[in-house]
Design a protein that fits this description.
single chain, binds inosinic acid, Rossmann fold, 6-stranded mixed beta sheet, alpha/beta, about 35% strand, binds magnesium ion, 3 helices
Length: about 170
């Protein structure tokens, strides 16, 4: 059940513009590949890329965590090769960090020129895999968040703002 609104549309839009401006400055002349992690980062990627003022490309990957012990695998890979490309990985939320740790390792093995992380939300309390996060929208407390692409069992992605949810998915 939805509890309280954490960030409204205006606050999200303002922060996304700031991130876009920083990315535009840092990646000028580099034709970065913005690589979103489906599905929940899709709304963020759409807004973020429109706030980036330099030429860039964007693509998506999809991952599945098929068991807690066996780890993570790609269910949709990149469309083009990442070799020699400047990759900006875009996530909606970093929680334990295990998802991105796997993606970072894979992209480095494939010899991307650089790999950096941009996350809309950062929940540091439950981090297992530490990593440098270059661009961060907001830090959040230990609550489950929905809206703006983020779901609880498939629901609430379409909401334009970010809300806390009363429970965590099983
Ligand atoms: P991690 O691998 O534990 O860092 O989990 C990150 C993944 O879990 C991301 O792909 C998120 O989409 C999802 N996730 C983590 N926290 C939330 C949340 O509060 N709401 C919705 N999805 C979340
Ligand atoms: Mg996700």
């Amino acid at each position: 059940m939805i509890q309280e609104q954490l960030f409204d549309e205006a606050a999200i839009a303002a922060r996304v513009r700031e991130l876009g401006a920083a990315i535009s400055k840092d990646y000028a002349g580099k034709n970065p590949m913005i690589l979103g992690v489906l599905t929940s980062s899709a709304v963020f990627v759409g807004d973020l890329t429109r706030s980036i003022e330099i030429p860039c490309e964007f693509d998506f990957i999809a991952l599945s965590r098929y068991s807690d012990t066996e780890g993570i695998r790609f269910i949709k890979d990149t469309t083009a090769s990442v070799e020699g490309r400047h990759i900006l990985l875009v996530e909606d939320t970093i929680d334990t960090g295990l998802t991105l740790q796997y993606v970072l390792k894979t992209l480095r093995e494939r010899q991307a020129a650089s790999v950096e992380i941009c996350t809309l939300l950062d929940r540091k309390q439950r981090r297992i895999a530490g990593m440098d996060v270059k661009y961060r929208g907001f830090e959040i407390p230990d609550v489950f968040v929905v809206g703006y692409g983020l779901d609880y069992q498939g629901r609430y992605r379409e909401l334009p703002a970010l809300y806390s949810h009363g429970s965590w998915p099983k």
